Amino acid sequence: MKKFICLFILILFAVSNNVSAQNISFTYDADGNMESRNTVTLKSNAPKHVEEVPEEEIISVELAEQKITIYPNPTQGEICVEITPLNPEEESFMHIFDSSGRLLEIKKIVSERTYLEISGSPGVYLLNIHLGANTSKWKIIKQ
């Protein structure tokens, strides 16, 4: 009986560790080289104005004391970038590059939620988010 209870507790522990496992996100430079590794937190509740976004398409990371959430990724064209809390005293902006490193757009971040339309052809795009002196780099996939 003790063996059964120990086995049951061990199985519960293993299952709970798999459920709460963290995913890893990588940041890349303009040439596609990996620069850093970030812990990813999946967010399960999408805003009401966006169609249902599956959990795996929402990625969040902490940068300094700010949380950056980008969804959906992969996208059909429009992504939402949420930054909380946004410091209005810091200069905040984002750059979007195509896979060849060509700058497509620079957009100033003026609110906690910013929408960005990727109007190019399907492929991989690079998004750099600058919050004051901090930078976060993301790979965005357009389907």
Structure characteristics:
143 residues, mainly beta, Immunoglobulin-like, four-stranded antiparallel sheet, 1 helix, 46% strand, globular
Describe this entry's structure for a reader.
Helices cover 13% and strands 46% of the residues. The protein has 143 residues and is mainly beta. It has one domain: Immunoglobulin-like, CATH 2.60.40. The strands form three sheets. It has a four-stranded antiparallel sheet, with no helix packed on it. A four-stranded antiparallel sheet has the order 7-6-9-10, with no helix packed on it. The chain has a two-stranded antiparallel sheet with strand order 1-2. Strand 1 and strand 2 form a beta hairpin. The protein is globular, with a radius of gyration of 18 Å. The relative contact order is 0.17.
How is the secondary structure organized here?
Blueprint: H1 2-19, E1 23-28, E2 34-40, E3 59-63, E4 66-71, E5 78-84, E6 92-97, E7 103-108, E8 113-117, E9 123-131, E10 134-142
Antiparallel strand pairs: 1-2, 3-4, 4-5, 5-8, 6-7, 6-9, 9-10
